[in-house]
Write a structure and sequence with these properties.
Length: 211
């Protein structure tokens, strides 16, 4: 059957418009990243102030910009204190800003602690937040359950240089790792303008070593 020329033209035009639209769709600008973490403490050591846990999260996969460290079961600044939770901005080997919540020490065997740590960009600032923290020792912690949030000025326009493997490499149990059963970066979510773009469901266990 012969197809009328007008139909051929319309079909060709539709295909062209579809291709043009697809080619014109911009690549989402990643401006927010969330990491889900899980920690299982086998046997806490009150006298030894252990275990001591730190995670690090950076907008880039090197040391070229400030980054945030999250200490659990100890606070480093302005001087060492046992227990609690503390955020620190690290910049060129200095710590210009901290944020602290809670003071209790880990004291429950086989305690599971879960939390989400988030970096986001807004108004030339990088914001770091702890979200939805759950534990026996500190109860619920982070945004909405006390404030664990910190920010600093940045010239970065997007989070395309973020790497979960960098977070993994810089995170771990810094003291008495033999008191920890597991520490895992469970999954990572990427957002653009408040909309979920993708989810990395790869589970990344931390190498606990023997500290």
């Amino acid at each position: 059957m012969r197809i009328p020329r007008i139909i051929k033209v319309l079909v060709s035009g539709s295909v062209f418009l579809s291709l043009a639209t697809a080619m014109a769709d911009p690549v989402p600008v990643i401006d927010q990243v969330q990491e889900d973490w899980s920690l299982v403490v086998a046997s806490p050591d009150l006298d030894g102030v252990g275990p001591q846990i730190t995670t690090c999260m950076s907008p880039v996969s090197d040391n070229s910009t400030p980054f945030v460290a999250f200490d659990m079961n100890y606070r480093e600044f302005p001087s060492f204190s046992a227990g609690g939770l503390q955020l620190q901005v690290w910049s060129n080997g200095r710590v210009p800003t901290t944020c602290t919540q809670e003071t209790a020490q880990l004291a429950t065997a086989n305690e599971t602690i879960t939390w989400t740590q988030q970096i986001s960009l807004s108004n030339n600032n990088l914001n770091y937040d702890i979200l939805g923290g759950k534990s026996t020792t500190w109860g619920r912690f982070g945004q909405g359950n006390g404030n664990l949030s910190i920010s600093f000025a940045t010239t970065i326009n997007d989070l395309s240089a973020y790497s979960p493997d960098y977070s993994l490499a810089k995170s771990g149990v810094t003291w008495e790792s033999n008191h920890v059963s597991s520490m895992t970066l469970v999954q990572v979510r990427y957002y653009s303008g408040g909309q979920l773009v993708s989810t990395d469901t790869k589970s990344r266990p931390v190498n606990l070593g023997n500290n």
